[in-house]
Amino acid sequence: MIEGVPFRDDFLERYLCSHDVSSPPLIKRFFKIADGVFQPEKEEDVLRILKFAEKKKIPVIPRGAATSGYGGVIPVRGGFVVDFTRMDRFEIDEDGRILVSEPGAVWWDIERELNKKGLTLRVYPTSAFSSTVGGWIAQNGYGVGSLAYGSIAENVTRLRVADFRGVNETENIHLYAGLEGTTGMITKAWIEVKEFEEMQAYAFHVSPEKAVKLVFSSDSYSALFLDEKYIRMKNSVHSTQIPEKDTLVVVSKKKLDGDESLGNEIWEARFYPMKIKRLGPGIIPAEVIIPSERLSEYLQRISGWNAGSEVWFIKEKLCAVLSFLPWDERKASYTYQWRFAVKALKTAKKLGGRSYSSGLYLSRESKEIFPGYNELLRFKKEVDPHNLLNPVKVFPSGIISKIMALAGVF
Hints:
Structural class: alpha+beta
Oligomer: single chain
Strand order of the largest sheet: 11-13-12-15-16-14-17
Helix content: 25-40%
Distance between the termini: 42 Å
Radius of gyration: 21 Å
CATH topology of the domain at 200-355: Vanillyl-alcohol Oxidase, Chain A, domain 3
Shape: globular
Number of helices: 15
CATH class of the domain at 200-355: Alpha Beta
Largest sheet: 7 strands, antiparallel
CATH architecture of the domain at 200-355: 3-Layer(aba) Sandwich
Low-confidence stretches: none
């Protein structure tokens, strides 16, 4: 297709690269299959792909590990998926405590190398075993360490980005973080890391209200809250049997008056804590950002749906809440039960919260997620006048955006 750039056009590869971990039943019928999959190995390959796409007026969709469920990697209008997994090189500036990474590098591969040098990541996703650097920046995710260091964007000092104009090196992280490749394709990132420090995990059986007070008075590195229903679901998947009570886990350098044994057990299982794929298609997720003082009220309002929730605490006194609703086909159709995700978001917004991300499905939420939305829209039109960079994501347009509006999300 493009000489020297790896390319796949067999049906299986195109099919696999046309999905992520979620496909809402109301709209997946409108998805198309990718026309082909490019696998660039260096920045020059990315520029050649963009030049080709611009000439042919064909959409290009960047893809990392596709561990998100917001539809950001789906080629809704067809086009070429750009699979960045071959661009996985990285280096570590020990003196400056800076990671310099290509987009396809996997977070846990990086963490292992950092640890050898007495360093560690400030923040990383719970999908760190497979999630890529470029993908998580494009999502602007929260996760482990966000209590102390915020989102990944707050830890990125510089980006190198390719678009139809060429390559740009910039410190304007907000023009790309969370925008899922709609304004350019990340080819390199400079990310702050920190000195490795021994920490201890402590567990507390407390209510959501007490959990919030304890977390934001502890000056700790990271904190995770699991409600009783979530732990019950977790026990059904894992071999361990954690007490089925509301449980807070705080990770800190300081000695805390908590259960170290239980804290370590839960903390060691923080990666892919629910192992969604093992639960099969009968699990419906909802993910929102909530002000910490409204956490208890939010969990109470969605409790009638029998959903289990995990909560990651964020330094701005916010909470990232991921809830799972088991689907029982004997009681209701999957489409009917999927309303839970809609209801959860509407509930969060009433309490001053918002969607965790926008992507494809929740693109109409972008105005609330991004304070400078109008600036971003102008920038999008400037760098991508033909709307070929991951179209219909983040900036709402097309039939899927309208369907989601009709579904009552907005």
